[in-house]
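Technical annex, item 7. During the second reporting period the consortium partners agreed on a shared format for inverse folding records so that results from different sites could be compared directly. Each record opens with the tokenized structure and is followed by the designed sequence. A conforming record, contributed by the partner at site C, is shown below for reference.
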């Protein structure tokens, strides 16, 4: 769904779909000391893994509260294991729900993958792209939404194998979104990595995602391990190809809230803020283009009267 096809008031309609706005950055403990004194307006929202903060008190808990009182927050889960053959961890879902209420957190996202079966695997494993798997995952997502009392947002993940594949990844993601009636966290870097590793078309993937389901975006750096294998590491700067795909995403779906992920190998905070500023710059460029397009339509309408 291209934004050119929206009516002129659709900008407000799309804004209402987003739990946050602007350009964000993940809050990591290794960055906290550098992030206390960020310039006003440098970051619009932040994101954490709830598993790393639920039940944390003392000095760290007080520091985290300082951030949640200052910024809009999202939680991005690590261990729900939505595609696992094991029973759904409903206790975890309730803990996340209560944590969100405690801190006024705007939304909960998780990975479209699994990471456990009678114990954690400490990795995100691919779900087979089949209709049966989509039915199974959708049922579990709907149960999570029932417990939360709100929408769960699922993220497309990076994969290094595609076991049991009966359809393309974008087809599978779209099917899950439709069956579960949930939101999408579209990870632009994961789309690039998977398209390179498995021979897909990243631009086509982005264009087939349903605009009305997208809640926010991730971008991150990846490691080019070999010519054939790129690895989603979140440990280096965002590559040019991913920035180009971000521009395409805004062109296709409108300007969507976007978060920079960086999980280790932290540079000086100024370098990360430069990347966040580039997100905002690209957003502003596309907002100006969209407004110009709307103005052209209105002007043509006046001349036609």
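Designed sequence (site C submission):
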């Amino acid at each position: 769904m291209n934004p050119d096809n929206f009516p002129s008031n659709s900008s407000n309609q799309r804004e209402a779909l987003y739990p946050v706005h602007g350009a964000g950055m993940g809050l990591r403990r290794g960055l906290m000391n550098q992030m206390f004194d960020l310039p006003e307006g440098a970051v619009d929202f932040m994101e954490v893994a709830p598993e790393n903060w639920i039940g944390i008190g003392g000095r760290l808990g007080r520091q985290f509260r300082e951030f949640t009182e200052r910024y809009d927050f999202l939680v991005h889960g690590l261990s729900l294991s939505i595609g696992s053959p094991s029973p759904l961890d409903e206790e975890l879902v309730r803990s996340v729900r209560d944590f969100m209420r405690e801190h006024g957190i705007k939304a909960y996202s998780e990975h479209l993958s699994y990471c456990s079966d009678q114990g954690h695997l400490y990795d995100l494993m691919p779900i087979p792209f089949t209709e049966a798997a989509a039915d199974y995952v959708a049922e579990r997502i709907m149960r999570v939404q029932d417990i939360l009392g709100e929408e769960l947002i699922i993220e497309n993940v990076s994969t290094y194998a595609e076991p049991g594949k009966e359809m393309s990844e974008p087809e599978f993601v779209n099917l899950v979104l439709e069956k579960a009636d949930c939101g999408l966290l579209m990870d632009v870097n994961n789309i690039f990595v998977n398209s390179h590793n498995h021979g897909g078309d990243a631009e086509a993937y982005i264009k087939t995602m349903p605009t009305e389901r997208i809640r926010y975006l991730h971008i991150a750096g990846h490691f080019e391990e070999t010519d054939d294998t790129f690895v989603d590491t979140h440990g280096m700067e965002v590559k040019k190809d991913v920035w180009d795909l971000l521009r395409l995403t805004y062109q296709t779906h409108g300007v969507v809230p976007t978060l920079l992920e960086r999980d280790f190998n932290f540079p000086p905070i100024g370098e990360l803020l430069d990347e966040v500023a580039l997100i905002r710059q690209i957003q502003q460029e596309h907002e100006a283009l969209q407004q110009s397009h709307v103005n052209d339509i209105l002007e043509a309408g006046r001349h036609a009267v």
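The radius of gyration is 19 Å. The chain is about 45% helix and 15% strand. All partners now use this format for quarterly exchanges.
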